[in-house]
Amino acid sequence: MSTFQIPRRIQSLVFKRKKANALFHLNKYISDIDTGLYAEYYSDYIRFLHLYRIRLLLDWGMHKDALAYVCLENELYPDNPNSFAYKEFLKSRLPQSHSSKDTVLTAQSRGWDGVAGMEELKAIFERDVILPFTQKALYAKYKVPLPNGILLFGPPGCGKTYVAQKLAEQVSFNFIEIKPSSLGSPYVHGTQIEIKKLFEEAEKNRPTLIFIDEIEALVPNRSDSNVSFHYKAEVNEFLTQLDNCHKRGILVVGATNLIRNIDPAILRPGRFDQKIFVGPPDLEARVDAFKIHMKERPQEESIKWLYLAEMAEYFTFAEISNVVNQAARIAIDKKSLINTNILGTVIESTKPALNENNISQYT
To answer: What average pLDDT does this structure show over 40-56?
Structure first.
């Protein structure tokens, strides 16, 4: 997934549910890029924007319009079998789409409860990960293989673990979360044995989603001179277990802050088929994060959530939590309720770790 973001103005219109305005500006934005001097350079981003638009239309109950745009994507990307399978799926659901709550896609969206915003991330998951698992016969017809592994990469504190848990709920898989340290062993070949046991346990309880956080520690780049022989053997064992693990009812999701430190053999198609960037929360997600962390705290009724979220661009979930905690301390000192001014003052005095210039280091 590209590190490009939806423009702030469009995010704001989507959040305010100003559908006509949001679609108008989104369509214009796509048109401007698609016909511009750098259209070829932006081809992946343009495809993502089409998918984002489809996701919005489905969320708003505009299913026929969504199908029309899927058909457009078929024309734009005729070599992408996922698009054709997606089109057939939407066509099969049209008779049930009399209301915005009827379709399977809308029902699946309930699995995203607690994940506000991040519509682009949900769109990628729904079309390229969730549908293949929930519509296996359709994808088999189009000879589209099931995803074997997914790599979530991006800055820390942006919700990769939480998203993986929600993905397991969406596809009704058992969830196993591990860190490489839990597989470590002081014995020769001990870690290889632990890796094998992990996959055997997952297969026994299939379907299973194995989530491996900080995966670069388990499968470091073997070309690095600092990587020992034992690490190389462990990477080989992981590759053996990963190959075609979807046939054993296993989906592997890895998470890393530093994708470039992972062995290239892990990243090739057929192993980690999907590589998805998870960046800082978007506008709607930041609004929700402020509300969640402010819940049950003494506060004024008229807090300007959207205003605060717009101020907190590039803040991670962890940083928003810290802002609210600091605001609470200030309110205690002042013997007042937490309000917009206090929160805004803390945001202004806080420099987020991420910005437009340094976020590329995580890609």
So the answer is: 75
